[in-house]
Design a protein that fits this description.
Protein name: Endosome-associated-trafficking regulator 1
Family: Belongs to the ENTR1 family.
Order of helices and strands: HH
Organism: Penelope pileata
InterPro entries: ENTR1
Keywords: Coiled coil
Distance between the termini: 54 Å
Shape: rod-shaped
Length: 160
């Protein structure tokens, strides 16, 4: 009986040591799990902040694009008006050439003013069109970024 008791005590001691080591492993794993949860929460908050920042940038770029479109529309209207003016001056010029009475110098001056106005409108139109194209490219870049954020979220969820 003494031998059996000693053997059982030895076995109980081994089992207690094993149980304590398992409990230590469990505590370590629980700590690691908690650390991972905290890390994932921080990453999720960082990702949410980045998404909000991208959304704000997208709204700003959309406003810029709308403004550029409106500006381009105004410039096109001004361009059309100046084209009409130019045609009127050309007709007046033709009338002068055919012998109608008017001052040739005045017609030339009007044509020069119309030409200068037309060149100004053309220059401004080109600038606005370039801004509009740039805004569209920026919007495409933001759209691509948002797509990649979705992919990152999907990969993160799969990795869990």
């Amino acid at each position: 009986l003494k031998e059996e008791n000693a053997s059982l005590r030895s076995r109980i001691n081994k089992l207690q040591i094993y149980s304590e080591s398992q409990a230590d492993k469990m505590r370590k794993l629980e700590r690691k799990l908690e650390e991972n949860k905290i890390k994932e929460e921080k990453e999720a908050q960082d990702l949410e902040a980045m998404v909000q920042h991208v959304e704000q940038n997208l709204q700003l770029m959309t406003k810029r694009a709308v403004k550029a479109e409106n500006n381009a529309t105004k410039l096109k209207q001004e361009n059309a008006l100046l084209q009409v003016q130019l045609n009127n001056y050309k007709m007046e010029n033709e009338a002068l050439r055919s012998g109608q009475s008017a001052s040739l110098a005045l017609v030339k001056q009007n044509a020069d003013v119309a030409l200068q106005n037309l060149l100004t409108v053309i220059t401004n139109s080109r600038s606005s069109i370039k801004q509009l194209v740039s805004g569209a490219e920026s919007l495409q870049l933001v759209a691509d970024l948002l797509k990649s954020i979705d992919r990152i979220s999907e990969v993160s969820e799969d990795g869990q």
